[in-house]
Automatic annotation (TrEMBL):
Keyword Aminoacyl-tRNA synthetase listed: no
InterPro entries to which the protein is assigned, alphabetical: RibonucZ/Hydroxyglut_hydro
Record keyword Plastid present: yes
Keywords for the protein's UniProt record, in alphabetical order: Plastid
Signal peptide: none
Protein name, as recorded: Ribonuclease Z
Gene Ontology MF terms in the entry: 3'-tRNA processing endoribonuclease activity
Highest classification ranks of the organism: Eukaryota, Rhodophyta, Florideophyceae, Rhodymeniophycidae, Ceramiales
Length: 225
């Protein structure tokens, strides 16, 4: 996963009310954490298409985190977006959007799903999972990139006189088979090493605590808001 900050003032990982892009590997879609003012122009400046944005996560209702949200949603409407958009945020976000649409007399031609953040699994993708933890009225997010199977060694399969078919897929998953003559086919011998995945933590609480440290022990990247 790749991270790009949207706040031009940010030069370090620790900053108050930070907005950034999370670009997921092997996907053209990307996620946004918080929407600073003018974020749509900065997304384009990063070489990304705003229509490829699939999820927006709002950590709190501070003005620096939501000042660009309505403008971004309106820009998506102007470019003719039709696919749904998922927004995750605290209680009160829905009322802010409803009042903003009412005041600006704006409606969206695409579906906007609003999810209220709570402790537990928030996003469940076949390659990524995001957990939200509420600690002292502040959210901590943990994004886990799931383990991926290694590349199937086709030459090794041919040397064992295995014909292409469903067996290849099962061996790639590491399954073990015993043939009628007692010969053992170990799936791990037919694939390269598995990619163990990655873990990323985003802490919206500027004060460190034991729970935050314990939850971030296995994270390769930690960002404090």
């Amino acid at each position: 996963m790749h991270i790009n900050y949207l706040n031009r003032r940010i030069s370090k990982f620790k900053h108050l009310n930070s907005s950034f892009i999370l670009k997921l590997i092997a996907f053209k879609d990307f996620w946004i954490f918080n929407c600073c003012e003018g974020c749509q122009y900065r997304i384009i400046d990063k070489g990304l298409k705003i229509n490829n944005m699939s999820k927006i996560i709002i950590t709190n209702l501070h003005i620096n985190n939501i000042s660009g949200l309505l403008g971004l949603l309106s820009s998506l409407n102007l470019i003719g977006r039709i696919k749904a958009l998922h927004i995750y945020g605290p209680v009160g976000l829905k009322y802010y959007l409803d009042l903003g649409k009412k005041y600006s007399h704006t409606n969206f031609n695409y579906i906007v799903y609003i999810h209220i953040l709570k402790t537990g699994l928030v996003i469940n993708n076949y390659k990524y999972r995001m957990y939200s933890l509420l600690i002292n009225n502040q959210y901590q997010f943990i994004i886990i990139q799931l383990e991926e199977y290694g590349t199937f060694l086709l030459n090794c399969a041919k040397k064992n006189y295995l014909t292409p078919g469903p067996l290849y897929g099962k061996l790639k998953k590491g399954l073990i088979f015993i043939l009628p003559d007692g010969y053992i086919l170990n799936g791990y011998k037919f694939t390269s090493l598995n990619f163990l995945g990655n873990q990323f933590s985003f802490v919206s609480n500027p004060y460190c605590s034991r729970k935050i440290v314990e939850n971030s022990l296995f994270s390769s990247i930690i960002i404090y808001q």
